Amino acid sequence: MSKDINDTMSPVINADHQVFSMSVMLANWRAYYDITKPKVVALLVLTALVGMSLSVPGGLPWQLLLPAMLGIALLSSAAAAINHIVDEKIDTVMGRTHNRPLPEGRISATNAIVFATSIALLGFIILYALVNPLTAFLTLAGLVGYSFVYTMYLKRATPQNITIGGLAGAIPPLLGWTAMTNEIAPNALLLVLIIFTWTPPHFWALAIHRKDDYAKVNIPMLPVTHGVSFTKTQILLYTVLLFVVCLLPYLVGMSNWLYLVGACSLNLIFFGYAWQLKFHAKEETAMATFKFSIIHLMLLFIILLLDHYWLPMS
Amino acid sequence: MTENNKNTRTLRRLVLTSLLLAIVVIGLGAYTRLTHAGLGCPDWPTCYGLLDVPQTSAQIAAAEQAFPQRPVEPAKAWNEMIHRYFAGSLGLLIAAIAFFSIKLRFSKSARIRYPVVLPLFILCVVIFQAALGMWTVTLKLMPIVVMGHLLGGFTTICLLFLLYLRINAKGINAQGANLVDGQLKKYSSYALLGITILTAQIALGGWTSSNYAAMSCVELPICQGDWLSDLTFEQSFDLIPPSKDSYEFGHLAHNERVTIHVAHRLGAIITGVFLAWLAIMVFLKARNHSIKSAAIILLSLLIIQISLGVSNIWFSLPLKVAVAHNLVAACLMLSLITLAYKLRKNSEESLYE
Questions:
Q1: What global pTM score does this model have?
Q2: Is B178 in Cβ contact with A40 (below 8 Å)?
Q3: How far apart are CA A259 and CA B334, in angstroms?
Q4: Inter-chain contacts counted by CB atoms under 8 A, chains A and B
Q5: Do residues B155 and B125 touch, judged by C-beta distance below 8 A?
Q6: ipTM of the shown complex
Q7: Given A81, A229, B13, B240, which residue has the most CB atoms within 10 angstroms?
Q8: How many other CB atoms are there within 10 angstroms of residue A41's CB atom?
């Protein structure tokens, strides 16, 4: 591993190469765009935006809103890019991901590292200078937790990888909250808890779909180590847990009845998918469950937002 | 497994039949509009209170007494009623598809996850389309309703076609085999942009026809005379027109119609250039046979459609050419949807994969 890093890092020092890499970067912007997982980052930024909105009553100051969103987006993109770099070898072998930019050779690992480091640095500076140091360091912690702790270690170490590593992806609402208030509030942690509980059923549905791929590259995902049936039971139980956790914003008086109705409907549907996956699975139920989980989280946070502005709690 | 195959085959046949029927209904709709038969029956859903058209002299006399403002013209009434009966059959067929889809989706033995939201959505569209059909008559051919009715018809056929593509893809590659390599990826978004542009151009075409502006420009390539100074955007694109007894043969002034017509011509240039570029680039870059052929079909239909548009001007809107211009527009959209479908990305990602 360390030899690989040395190999890929050394050309960065070469100035000629760097000029070359800049021109390649511009010509090949699509590949750089792809390794940032733009859709996932958009969802993360949405959850951060909801964190910001719920932290204060009324409108948000754009002087904080814009740099906070930009900084969180840049650091999340960097984290996703690092994930692509670290996983290049297994992506080459796995069926569904072999046509990612790095395994296909559309960009080199060196250029990807330079790119990821640059946007991470830029994002950190934006957050530190224009928002507040607390948010900057928390966001950086999210990046380290996701790219290094999860991708490099947990993912390859334990079938509970996603359960623990999910914390990194769950942090954006807290980042949004601290960006506005500069303090860690209990209600922000509640939003984090929702995403934290949502992550295992979300990802295990995909892991079931790609079980053979993960087995091929020796990644100990739960369906590989404990079997598909056990994973499906876990998904079903987690959707029940998620149902309960999603009631908390209403119970603590953070959100109004609109959120309660929305959250209950979404969680019932999610539970329905999990039930079907466990007891009446068809060819594509796992993938459909995965796709729905994304819609679930997106709508849940949009409803949080609507509820906050339409039916504000006094 | 054999039962699954049989169900899939039945569903596929139903959808294919309804697709063909939808093409016929769209053609009949255009024919009705172009033969000025939209008000051939002044009431809805009956025609002068009858299930068919008044024919005997006694029936005609009774009809004209009941609807004194609209003398009976049997030929026009027939056009309208035939369109209504075909459209009604299509609606029933789509209802059957929706019910069959629900049955398949919730059947315990089915191993495939049949689409159910899309068929139900098509059913809603077709019900709304029936309402629009009624309003074309009761609101006396108000342009926005006529254009909406056209777009509703196109939406129906496009969604039916999408359903057909999805059913066909089932079973063959449930994993969604990736035909698309890195080079081709960006054209997926461009194909979606193409669908947006073509939709706008079809809407402009519908607006041209429903405002009776097809003959307002009789010269190529854009318009006759000093058309630039004729342009007026004030009322040309007002969606809600002033209240009138009837909008048949148009309610707008000449230069407003010129503006609409010019917009459709300029739209044709933009759409033509963009789709031609898209088809040629995809053809050159694709390494896959099925994507290449989709690009060729798109380009051929585009050439036919532009030729038909030019013929409409050149030969002063012959009925056959005008109907064909409408039908080929639908085919062009379907071929573009095919291309977009084949180029689509399996883009759902997770942070944790």
A1: 0.78
A2: no
A3: 40
A4: 62
A5: yes
A6: 0.74
A7: A81
A8: 22
